[in-house]
Amino acid sequence: MSDSDTIMILGAGIAGVHAAENLRKEGHQGSIVLVDRDNQVPYDRPPLSKQWMTGETDDSGVLLRHPDFYEDRDIDLKLGEEITNINPVRKTITTKDGFDYEWDKLMIATGSKLRTLSIEGDYLKGIFYLRRMADALAIKQHMQHVKEAVIIGAGFIGAEMASSLKQLGIEVTIVERSAYPMENIVGRQVSEYFLNLHRRNGVEVMTEDSVVQFNGDSEVQEAMTAGGRRIPCQAVMLSVGVTPNMELTHPQLEMENGYIVNEFGETSIPDIYAAGDCTSWPYHSGPIHVEHWDHAVNHAKTVTKNMISPQSSPYTYTPYFWSDQYGSRFQYFGHAKTWSQIIQRGSMEANAFTYFYLDDQNIIQAAFISNQAKNALPVRRMIKQQRPIDPEDLADDSISLKKVQRSLA
């Protein structure tokens, strides 16, 4: 690749910004063009439902980089630009306004987009989705006069929002369609732990129910459920998950649960790469898709190395995400769609435990950690090693995890 080549990055979220930064760190001297449809200087989304919402972090604290960062590194930041077409033959992209931009190599880093619901009365003021800074600003302003709020969906974002709103003194009710939220990710016991955690902190959780109607004049005043419950509220947060943002298409661009990439971040079209939440990438026995901050950063950094020096750096990342709720820190490592057994280490009653998800060969596929940060490093290493382990050693608190991990080496 020539030092004078133009690299264009579509999406100025976590992956896009870290990709642009890493291209300069890796020595790319050519043009870097970072394009995003949002008009805001690139910002970090996770704090919007946590520290920023509670006032612990101000507006500048959620910026991914100071505005001067882009000029200092000669990164051409183009905001408010919506891309409608990719031409891999001419190596151009076309914006909604009809402008064409040329590139030598292209990275798609469009992230994810919200799932939405259609519920009677959802036009009323006070009903929100949280994805962009503009959403967060509207929510924060509205919440100043709210006493009761409803959150639809008990996933990690909904749970974090419940924690933040309780911290602001608002009465919160969560409505969750399933009996055990996130059971497919963390298992029944950890799911029950989360339900009890919400309830211990004064949040009402309604499971196996769904909101079917909102009532009010111009502003929402009540949410009605399929089970006949009527919940007074002046604000509603819909948090029903996200999907990969694959709005940019081309007949030759392979997509399934994300833009399909190989271990180097290459798509099915030469010189077009993809990174972050919008991708489906190879992991152990097959392709996976995850929507995690840590993955977006590390994937972007690895893929940029391959854009400069093709197929030089395979991506061997262990998925990781964290969640802060009610003063606790939860961490999840690995990726397990199914498991043969779960091993507990520590105490749920003390809110300090680690759960290991093992396959039928006693190999750790994933682990969930509650308030045991010291376990993070050995857990990550054990998952990466992919070797059989003695379940009794995992459960035995008298044996350090570092010692257990070293025994696998």
CATH H-level homologous superfamily name of the largest domain: FAD/NAD(P)-binding domain
Task: Please tell me what the overall shape is.
Answer: globular
Strand content: 25-35%
Radius of gyration, in angstroms, nearest whole number: 23 Å
Low-confidence stretches: none
Structural class: alpha/beta
Q: Helical content, roughly?
A: 10-25%
Which architecture of the largest domain would the CATH scheme give at its second level?
3-Layer(bba) Sandwich
Provide the spatial order of strands within the biggest beta sheet: 3-2-1-7-19
**The first-level CATH class name of the largest domain:** Alpha Beta
Average predicted confidence as pLDDT? 92
Task: Write up this protein.
This protein has helices spanning 14-25, 51-54, 68-72, 133-142, 156-167, 183-200, 293-308, 376-385, 391-395, 401-406; strands spanning 7-10, 32-36, 75-79, 83-87, 92-95, 100-102, 105-108, 112-114, 127-129, 148-152, 171-175, 204-206, 211-215, 222-225, 230-232, 235-238, 242-244, 259-260, 272-274, 279-283, 286-288, 320-325, 328-334, 341-347, 352-358, 364-370. The model has no long low-confidence stretch (mean pLDDT 92). The strands form seven sheets. Strands 3-2-1-7-19 form a five-stranded parallel sheet. The protein is α/β, with parallel strands linked by helices. Helix 1 (14-25) runs parallel beside helix 7. It has three domains: 7-113 and 243-308, 3-Layer(bba) Sandwich (FAD/NAD(P)-binding domain), CATH 3.50.50; 116-238, 3-Layer(bba) Sandwich (FAD/NAD(P)-binding domain), CATH 3.50.50.60; 327-406, FAD/NAD-linked reductase, C-terminal dimerisation domain (Enolase-like, domain 1, 2-Layer Sandwich), CATH 3.30.390.
